[in-house]
Amino acid sequence: MSRLRHILTNNKARNAGVAILLLFALCATLAPWIAPHDPWEFGPAFLHPSTTNLLGTNDVGQDIFSELLYGTRNSLLVGFAAAFIAVSLGTVVGLVAGFRKGVLDDLLMGVTDVFLVVPMLPLAILVSVYLGPSIWNLILVVGLLWWPSTARVIRSQVLSIRESGYVESARALGAGDLWLMWRHVLPNVLPLLMAKFVLTVAMAMLMDASLSFLGLGDPIAKSWGMMLRYAFMRGGFVGGMWWWYVPPGLAIGLCILSLTLISFGIEEKSDPRLKRVLER
Amino acid sequence: MSELLRVANLSVVFDTPAGLVHANRGINLTVNEKETLGIMGESGCGKTVLFLSLLRLQQPGRIASGSIAFDGRQLTGLTASEMQQVRGRQIALVPQDHSTALDPAFTVGQQLDEALMIRENGGGLWKTSLMGCRARDRSARLDEIRAVLSELALGELVDTGRLLARYPHQLSGGIRQRVLIAMALLGHPRMLIADEPTTALDRASRAQTLAVLNALCRRMTMLIISHDLEAIRTTCDRVAVMYGGRIIETGPMLSVFNKPRHPYTRLFLSCQKLSRGDDLPEIIGDVLNLMDFPPGCSFHPRCPQAMPVCSLVEPAEVHFDDAMVACHLYGSGENTC
């Protein structure tokens, strides 16, 4: 109990982040039960906010509030799944490159640098045009393109850990390379990995929204990016219907803010020297 | 007594941008079964590179020439995975710096268990972590860990649960050092290498560690690298003195300590025999630059007994009954002191 209290009172900014994210997660899981309407159901179009339609309706009469709730599912799914792929890939590349050094390192880091200098959004647009619009393609595109920064960060840590006393002494005990990577290097980059993962989720959600807004997401699926797209295309922005385009934008912003706060919290926990810098 | 380790003409070099660093130059060394050999010498004389090469962990240095025979087997020719079998199970290492040699992410118990799992299943990841946990049940492993720890006078801490669940940073230096010794012993090695086992410790833990090593050296083959003369004196049967990447004198511990032959050994030993009010003795000059040797004997620029020949010819090893010295003072027998 005291441990729990310690964790909760430890860092206000991070707790705010966790609270916001939990709220979104709750909306996502409970969407079918708490949504007042079926978001795919047509009805009277362009209604203003009222008690029956909290945020009004869109161009084909779908309830915007329900769309927003269902959209949470999509955004969180894409964000977490894509980040999982990206961070796993980046970790493997960074771990192997940093631990093995030599030619393999040069090769892997060369590929990483190529991916790093290519502008991400145009490349993502290009790839998703070829793959066609669907959630899974979005996840794949973001996941397979967003790993280089993780690889770089992990590699730099691994380079220092591999020279540490405990890796050397485990090697002297007869441990092999894979064993050392799994048992000694990976656990010691884990805090960094968690911070990086959370940040990558935020980036993936932003990327998802951007691609959906550009029409490269699934047109039937409900997502915040798609809502913005339709609001933009069907006169929501021009007509000043703020209840149509402000909520999804705000939701994206809040989600990314919460994830960033959590990431900072983890980073600070793993490296207390950062604390003073952040508090200043 | 049979011979366990024989190092012949071992040379280890490091390629650096500034040039070739000769860390070890033609080392000859034998260690017999159940014998404890102490290697002493000042910092930068190549002690560390020597024992790392025995485990083939000298990277980025490379073994330029020479051979290392352990129990009749050439270690220099083994593949990486064969060498992995030798480390820990044939030759185990007790690292010098106890504050960094334990992984901060795991408890002491987990790390001792790891040493056991590596011994039983090898250091490969798949075999050891997937099947290793099931190979023998936990309580049997715990018993073995407890047995080794009580041998090192840590059994009481285990029984009260104060040791195994602790993380390394929660323990004192002396206990960490003994945990490292326990990890090395759990591999059932034929030979134990202790790298400066007492340097990073305070007086009290140093005495405890020495007592532990003293008990161990009665039943094990050990190689103790140290410049702590007291540690060498209490544990070793024979000593070897290194200077400039070479072994310049070997002999039974007592004869080297009481009647050092090489001028360097004499100075090195006198530096530590201080009584109150004495001037601080020192060996004039700097430690050798391992990249740029003087011609002849590498010690001659600092040697009080240097002769003209010393700066011209590198002294050969002169063998006595059970001792060896590489110095021109003992050259062809016409000048013995």
CATH class of the largest domain in chain B: Alpha Beta
Strand content of chain B: 15-25%
Determine the number of helices of chain B (DSSP H or I, runs of at least 4 residues). Answer: 11
Which percent band covers the strand fraction of chain A?
Answer: under 5%
Order of strands in the sheet with most strands of chain B: 6-7-8-3-9-10-12-11
- Overall shape of chain B: it is globular
Task: Please explain how this structure is put together.
The complex is a heterodimer of chains A (280) and B (337). Chain A is mostly helical. Helices cover 76% and strands 0% of the residues of chain A. Chain A has 12 helices and no strands. Chain A has helices at residues 2-10, 12-34, 64-100, 102-117, 120-131, 135-145, 148-161, 165-172, 177-213, 224-233, 242-270, 274-279. In chain A, helix 3 (64-100) runs parallel beside helix 7 (148-161) and helix 10 runs antiparallel to helix 11 (242-270). The model of chain A has no long low-confidence stretch (mean pLDDT 86). With 337 residues, chain B is α/β, with parallel strands linked by helices. Chain B has 2 domains: 1-90 and 189-276 and 314-337, P-loop containing nucleotide triphosphate hydrolases (Rossmann fold, 3-Layer(aba) Sandwich), CATH 3.40.50; 99-188, Rossmann fold. In chain B, 32% of the residues lie in helices and 22% in strands. Chain B is built from 11 helices and 12 strands. In chain B, the strands form 2 sheets. An 8-stranded mixed beta sheet of chain B has the order 6-7-8-3-9-10-12-11, sandwiched between helices. In chain B, strands 2-1-4-5 form a 4-stranded antiparallel beta sheet, covered by helices on one side. Residues 333-337 of chain B have low confidence and may be disordered. The chains are: A mainly alpha (280), B alpha/beta (337). Chains A and B meet through helix 8 and helix 9 of A and helix 2, helix 3, helix 4 and helix 7 of B.
